[in-house]
Automatic annotation (TrEMBL):
Substrate binds at R117, G118, G119, Q120, T121, T122, Y123, H124, S184, I185, G186, G197, F198, S199. It comes from Mixia osmundae (strain CBS 9802 / IAM 14324 / JCM 22182 / KY 12970). It catalyses: octanoyl-[ACP] + L-lysyl-[protein] = N(6)-octanoyl-L-lysyl-[protein] + holo-[ACP] + H(+). This is Octanoyltransferase. It is an enzyme of class 2 (transferase). The gene is Mo02538. Pfam families: LplA-B_cat. Residues 62-247 form the BPL/LPL catalytic domain. Pathway: Protein modification; protein lipoylation via endogenous pathway; protein N(6)-(lipoyl)lysine from octanoyl-[acyl-carrier-protein]: step 1/2. Belongs to the LipB family. The lineage of its organism: Eukaryota, Fungi, Dikarya, Basidiomycota, Pucciniomycotina. Keywords: Acyltransferase, Transferase. Its EC number is 2.3.1.181.
Length: 247
């Protein structure tokens, strides 16, 4: 994919991320209405990271722009760095367990992909809004932890605008109760450019897919959705206008 050399093909609109002033820079956004296979989304992100990294290295004036890519994925289970770190230290028996789990999940009709994002195993698929902010973090005046917190505040604000009540939690992500999680965060920062990002469960159909795994390593937590929390049928497309509304 030639996304690094022709980014204008997907940079269609401008907005501001809702949050505190340090994330209020203008950010371009693009919504892909057809579910995208995870490996294609990953390749697109990698191309954009290379593009923004090259702008940064050249000191290009437009490097202040970022991109918020919004989409749904086709069904996929992904692992993050925490799972991969455990795998590096595991015995051959543990590796066989991981391979067996990957095969079991593939038999459900989903892909299984190992990634370099933060976090552990999770699910992405139709009915879930996924956001990939591709940003030059050197311009944000915040630490990685502060960036994650800003993404979480963005999610909370979006959910509350749809009537979903959330609680504070010691875990990363957004929870509606101590045992119900509605949104996740897992990022990667390379050459000071962010990739991966967040997901929000919109439609109730995602819950059965999450039931196949211990999502994010939280055995006592189940997945919930905006549809489940509000009792209102809606789609990811219904949420996008609020996700990109300037604060």
């Amino acid at each position: 994919m030639q996304c690094a050399s022709r980014p204008a093909l997907i940079m269609s609109h401008a907005r501001h991320l809702h949050s505190r002033p340090s994330l209020s820079r203008a950010v371009l956004w693009s919504y892909l209405p057809t579910p995208v296979r995870y490996t294609i989304g990953l390749a697109l992100q990698e191309g954009l990271v290379e593009y923004y990294s090259s702008l940064r290295q050249r000191g290009h004036e437009s490097r202040s722009d970022g991109l918020l890519l919004l989409l749904e994925h086709t069904p996929v289970y992904t692992t993050g760095r925490r799972d991969l770190a455990r795998q590096d230290e595991a015995s051959q028996a543990r590796e066989r367990e991981i391979q067996a789990e990957a095969e079991r999940l593939r038999l459900t009709g989903a892909d299984y992909v190992r990634t370099q994002r933060g976090g552990q195993t999770t699910y992405h698929g139709p009915g879930q809004l996924v956001g990939y902010p591709i940003l030059d973090t050197s311009l944000l005046a915040m630490s990685t932890r502060e960036y994650v917190d800003a993404l979480q505040r963005f999610q909370v604000g979006l959910l509350r605008s749809r009537g979903v009540r959330t609680i504070d939690s010691p875990h990363t992500g957004v929870f509606t109760s101590e045992s119900a999680k509605i949104a996740s965060i897992g990022i990667q920062i390379r050459h000071r450019i962010s990739s991966h990002g967040f997901s929000i469960n919109i439609e109730d159909r995602v819950r059965s897919r999450f039931a196949e795994i211990v999502a994010c390593g939280l055995a006592d937590v189940r997945a919930t959705s905006v549809e489940s929390q509000t009792g209102t049928a809606l789609s990811v497309r219904d949420i996008v206008p609020q996700a990109v509304r300037p604060s």
